[in-house]
Amino acid sequence: MNILAHSNLRRSRMVTAAMATTMGAALCLAAPGATSAHATPKASHAAVTQVNCAPTPPWVSTYTFANHLKVEGGCFTENGRVYVTVKHNNGTVYFKRWVTARDHPFLAGGWINVDTLLRGPCTGTPKNGYARAYDSTTEKWSPRFPVSICILFDDNG
Asked: Cβ(142)–Cβ(58) under 8 Å?
């Protein structure tokens, strides 16, 4: 009985390792121009970064972690100042902050990742606002990214 359990465990590990190897190869091949993780030396990373972002504006998206709404984005100027904001569709500003775009080893352009401290996720709430960011170096805004802003009402009047 113990031998069977051990052999099943080993088989499970082998299948998991094979799947991880296959997924890793698929991810490497999915990157434009890359054939392996070692194909692009660190010295050329900045050049590749600028080429990948040149035709596209900066962008943002959101996710929730630890019950907070987070804003992330790319294609900003590396080490440049970026103004991140989350607004309600009626114009009310719920979050705003200046941050510095940093280099990311796997993503193009300067990268931002900001905790807004806004509550999230808002289940059942329609997209009643948007996140957006402004690259002060290029003077370009990212497109608006629709978000659900949780609005809590005080029952005490």
From this structure: yes
